[in-house]
Design a protein that fits this description.
The complex is a heterodimer. By secondary structure, chain A is mainly alpha-helical. Chain A is about 75% helix and about 0% strand. The longest helix of chain A is centred in the middle third of the chain and has 26 residues. Chain A is globular and about 55 Å long. In chain B, about 65% of the residues lie in helices and about 0% in strands. Classes of the chains: A mainly alpha, B mainly alpha.
Chain lengths: ~180, ~250
């Protein structure tokens, strides 16, 4: 199957049993990197990001047939990716709360365990600062700062009002600035 | 492009320091990761699909199941309607009225009922360590018993108050008097003949707790607080003692 970039066409092909798998593969290829990086920035660790990105695409496979085209496929995929990441973090938090050992599973610890981590470099310090944010605020900051997503689009992804997102981004920036300047 | 510039301007306005940090991706992925991901996903999708029930029927049923199914269902239907047929036989009028009750409840009643009941539940019982004072009833009971004996002694003494030098009381006479009081159930009557001062002196002399004895004498067995009350509420005993007002 030739590379088809139009989402509507991909969705039509997905609905056809004969072209379903090929259409799904095209959707994965089209969005995998954007979604992977969005998830990775939330979770820091590659293995965790890989688990979540795979699980989210499996969910896409199971639910794409029922996808209502009143929103863009791109928005829907980002919503699943964000929700899956937040769920993963929530589960991780619960696990570490019941564990007696040190919280080695925390995102910050995993970030610092990255083989390329260099705490003296500003870009890594920025990542450390991002990980201090509350989970949803982290998603807002990443989508705006790294993905350059308009508030209108983000509002559909996170199902939150634009006003609340602007306030959240503003708070996130101030917290990150404070972390970078004072630590 | 406009969007990117807008975002940069917005960020510079919020935090010039943050805007100055180059937006580089610090993370790396294993080599060939993205080229392998669709393949891996396809494999997993097939794996997941293989768990779905294949077309066709792979289950079995007991022999003759379908032959008896209709009859079994009819029997169930008959059993469920037997009450209706019974009442129809007994009273066609009642059967015609049906068994639906005519009562109604305020709109949304059942929605709020559970919550309302929860609000009325008592606060979870607090485990209260019993204070030493809670032993007052034990002492009081002991005091009542010794009071009965003591009263007999006093009663015997009272008959001899005018005699200056009292010999040691005759135990046999004391016990006989006590037995008589108990048998004739005349404890209350005998008690009225003994002054409070004499009782107090007797109790002090014999090492009894006067307050405990007063509690016992002022207590009506029928009005004692229920044990569960003072086990769950530490104020119950205080309230009870204030109520009987032993200090006055």
């Amino acid at each position: 199957m030739a590379d088809i970039s139009d989402d509507k066409e991909l969705l039509l092909l997905f609905k056809n049993e004969a072209t379903r798998e090929a259409a799904f593969t095209s959707i994965v290829k089209k969005y995998q990197e954007k979604l992977y990086w969005h998830i990775r920035r939330m979770l820091a660790d590659h293995d965790d990001a890989n688990d979540v990105v795979q699980n989210m695409f499996i969910k896409v496979w199971k639910n794409l047939e029922n996808f209502r085209e009143d929103s863009q496929l791109y928005t829907w995929l980002y919503r699943i990716a964000t929700n899956e990441s937040l769920s993963f973090l929530e589960q991780q938090k619960k696990r570490s709360a019941t564990s007696l050992s040190d919280d080695e599973s925390s995102v910050v610890n995993k970030l610092q365990a990255d083989k390329d981590f260099d705490g003296n470099k500003l870009e890594w310090k920025l990542q450390l600062a991002i990980q201090q944010l509350p989970e949803k605020q982290k998603a807002v900051f990443n989508l705006r700062y790294f993905e350059e997503m308009p508030y209108e689009e983000m509002s559909r992804v996170l199902e939150t009002s634009e006003g609340a997102l602007k306030a959240s981004y503003h708070h996130a920036v101030k917290k990150i600035e404070d972390y970078i300047l004072n630590r | 492009m406009t969007n990117k510039n807008d975002i940069l301007r917005e960020l510079a306005g919020l935090s010039p320091h943050l805007a100055a940090i180059p937006r580089v991706n610090v993370y790396r992925v294993p080599e060939g990761y993205f080229s392998q991901l669709p393949v891996e996903l396809q494999r997993r999708v097939q794996e997941e699909s293989s768990f779905e029930l294949p077309a066709g029927n792979h289950f079995s049923v007991p022999e003759g199941y379908f032959d008896q199914l209709a009859g079994n269902i009819m029997n169930r239907i008959k059993a469920e309607t037997s009450q209706l047929s019974e009442i129809a036989t007994l009273s066609p009028t009642l059967a015609a009225i049906g068994n639906q009750h005519p009562f109604t409840v305020p709109a949304g009643y059942f929605d709020g009922l559970a919550k309302e009941i929860r609000q009325q539940l008592p606060v979870t019982a607090k485990v209260v360590q019993m204070k030493p004072r809670s032993n007052v009833f034990r002492y009081a009971a002991a005091a009542v018993v010794s009071g009965v004996i003591g009263l007999s002694v006093l009663s015997v003494f009272n008959n001899r108050t005018e005699q200056p030098a009292l010999p040691a009381p005759d135990n046999t006479a004391v016990m006989a008097k006590a037995g008589e009081i108990l048998r004739s159930n005349s404890f209350e009557k005998e008690l009225l003949t003994v002054s409070d001062k004499d009782i107090e002196q007797y109790l002090v002399k014999h090492g009894q707790d006067v307050n405990a004895a007063l509690v016992a004498s002022a207590t009506d067995d029928n009005n004692l607080p229920d044990p569960t009350d003072y086990l769950t509420n530490e104020n119950t005993l205080d309230e009870f003692l204030n109520q009987i007002n032993v200090t006055n």
